[in-house]
Design the sequence.
């Protein structure tokens, strides 16, 4: 030994989806979109697939409501947490560990949905098209694909870069101590990709950082006309793009982008008497 620090193999970079329990501490109680997806799932005229279902924030309430719903996600930790929570309630939904861009599962669905920005993890146009074509290919006749992503408005695009921003604070459900999430963002405005270095801090009872969990993730943003091109290029017959969960049109650049897309032409108008 010569006294210098031994070079270490770099640890693989964690993603925010490598720890489903920690994800749930921050996001498990989010309800802003739950009624919207739950109602769609309840009204679906056949089985439902949730793509990028995560820890079951939406899927589990659907199962409890009696919806015939399957889930799909790439990250084992997210699916593991979902399975554990569902089992505690006496349910064992069918879950597929697969990439949202290129899966093939046996059922065809009346509704395929992807909540809470799942689609932004398709980082290139080719990824986006592959995902949309795959989702479309799993629709039963008359079925719909529905998903929501954030809209890349002025506030988002001119947001702070390279400095940590406190995104949220909650209490740990077990210890009752504060948990904070910081995001340090950088933007590739040509590729339309945001890179996030995430730090989740668990504080002790003196307000000091007891544990810091670091992870990284990328998100691709998409504008509305671009989304319409993607839907057309992936073969949908028609679509509707809304600005909020009440289905009002997308008109403001701080709106949500909520996409409904169908394989089939609109139902025929009732014939005149
Ligand atoms: C923001 S979370 C949303 C999770 C869940 N839908 C919810 O609303 O809480 C994004 C999800 O996308 C999943 N994900 C990311 N890339 C994926 C991929 N290529 N294929 C499938 N799932 C993916 C992550 O594991 C994570 O569960």
Sequence:
């Amino acid at each position: 030994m010569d006294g210098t620090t031994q070079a270490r193999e770099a640890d693989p970079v964690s993603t925010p989806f490598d720890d489903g329990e920690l994800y749930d501490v921050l996001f498990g109680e989010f309800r802003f979109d739950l009624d919207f997806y739950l109602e769609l799932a309840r009204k679906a005229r056949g089985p439902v697939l949730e793509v990028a279902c995560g820890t079951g924030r939406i899927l589990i309430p659907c199962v409890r409501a009696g919806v015939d719903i399957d889930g799909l996600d790439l990250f084992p930790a997210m699916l593991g947490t979902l399975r554990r929570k569902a089992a505690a309630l006496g349910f064992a939904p069918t879950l597929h560990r697969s990439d949202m861009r290129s899966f093939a599962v046996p059922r065809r669905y009346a509704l395929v949905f992807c909540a809470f920005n799942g689609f932004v993890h398709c980082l290139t146009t080719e990824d986006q098209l592959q995902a949309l074509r795959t989702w479309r290919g799993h629709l039963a006749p008359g079925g719909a694909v529905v998903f929501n992503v954030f809209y890349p408005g002025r506030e988002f695009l001119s947001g702070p870069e390279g400095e940590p921003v406190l995104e949220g604070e909650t209490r740990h459900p077990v210890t009752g101590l504060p948990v904070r999430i910081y995001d340090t963002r950088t933007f590739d405005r040509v590729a339309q990709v945001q890179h996030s270095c995430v730090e989740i801090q668990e504080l002790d009872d003196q307000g000091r950082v007891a544990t810091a969990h670091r992870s990284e993730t990328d998100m691709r943003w998409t504008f509305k006309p671009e989304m319409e091109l993607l839907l057309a290029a992936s073969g949908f017959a028609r679509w509707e793009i809304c600005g909020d969960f009440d289905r009002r049109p997308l008109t403001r650049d701080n709106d949500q982008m909520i996409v409904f897309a169908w394989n089939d032409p609109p139902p025929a108008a009732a014939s005149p008497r």
In short: The first helix runs from residue 20 to 27.
